[in-house]
Specification:
alpha/beta, TIM Barrel, eight-stranded parallel beta sheet, three-stranded antiparallel beta sheet, 16 helices, 11 strands, globular
Length: 318
């Protein structure tokens, strides 16, 4: 398939300029496979995984799809070196790093077959990674769910596209066709979307997690952890309000309460002790749908015309 008109389609050999956000716990093999099968780049979120869990998920996704997929690796994970080794052993082709500088891994990983990308929140790290040979960067604005940076998507993406020679992918708060179109207008070559896909049929998160998203408004997220040095955006609940208060009174207690809180949201959906990480785009999501339908609705013909993907436009017209 000819993807000459879009650098990300050409780089990744996918049909739509879309990457699934690397969401810890939520980014399972099943969800990633559904995105890859629908023409995007599915991503296994290895953020909270142990080495054995990652091995299992890589094996599982290969029973669900023969399409290309990525693994998102959080540099804060205590098993990061082992997780990188597993991805190499399992012949993973696309590595996406987050929460830090992956520079020390680039030379070791990079081959003609393997692709390396990284999530960045400023142009400083992006420039450094470009010099070190990274293939593309994902500029993530603070509208995103989970760990956030200080800049908005609207500010970060044009700065990156004006500064870098490598392709830029826009992320943070994107959930509608209009926002996808805006990302291309800002110079991005693709979008990374996470929260929208939590509210999908194929997502394995607890039903209450999905309901939290579709019933929320755009002001229903809250940032906690700023005082602890790692701000996180999640859905506003009694539990997150408690965390917000405690971080000024008893930081150690907050750290204790946070242990396993995202896992609980994914597995049990219990509002009393769970953190439902999600972006501000929750207020734009009002229905649970199949992944394929979500992607087709995001990439209307008008949107595709703005992303310069002539081949895909021809497929849609057919």
């Amino acid at each position: 398939m000819n993807h000459e008109n879009n650098a990300i389609l050409e780089l990744l050999n996918i049909d739509y300029p879309l990457i699934l956000g690397g969401m810890a716990w939520v980014g399972t093999a099943q969800l990633a496979a559904a995105v890859s099968e629908a023409g995007g780049l599915g991503t296994i979120g290895a953020g909270g995984m142990t080495p054995d869990t990652l091995k299992s998920e890589i094996d599982r996704i290969r029973t669900l799809t023969d399409k290309r997929f990525a693994v998102n690796l959080m540099l804060l994970n205590p098993h990061i070196n082992e997780l990188v080794d597993i991805c190499l052993e399992k012949d993973v082709e696309v590595f996406i790093f987050g929460a830090g500088n992956p520079g020390k891994y680039i030379k070791r990983i990079k081959t003609e077959k393997r692709i390396i990308m990284a999530v960045v929140a400023s142009e400083t790290l992006a420039l450094r990674l470009e010099r070190e040979g990274i293939d593309a960067v994902i500029g993530e604005g603070m509208e995103c769910g989970g760990h956030i940076g200080p800049l908005t998507t609207m500010t970060l993406i044009p700065k990156l596209t004006r500064t870098l020679r490598i392709p830029v992918i826009a992320a943070g708060g994107i959930a509608t066709p209009e926002q996808v179109k805006a990302a291309f207008a800002l110079g991005a070559k693709a979008v990374q979307i996470g929260t929208r896909f939590i509210a999908s049929d194929e997502c394995e998160a607890h039903e209450n997690y999905k309901q939290q998203i579709i019933k929320s408004k755009i002001r229903d997220t809250v940032i906690t952890g700023s005082r602890l040095g790692h701000p996180v955006r999640s859905i506003k609940t009694k539990f997150t309000r408690k965390l917000g208060k405690l971080e000024y009174e008893s930081p150690d207690e907050v750290e204790r309460l946070l242990i396993g809180s995202l896992r609980k949201a994914f597995q049990t959906g219990n509002e009393a002790d769970s953190v439902f990480m999600a972006g501000q785009s929750i207020g734009l999501i009002d229905e649970i749908k199949p992944v394929k339908t979500i992607i087709e609705e995001l990439f209307t013909l008008e949107v595709l015309e703005n992303s310069y993907t002539d081949t895909v436009i021809e497929q849609v017209k057919e």
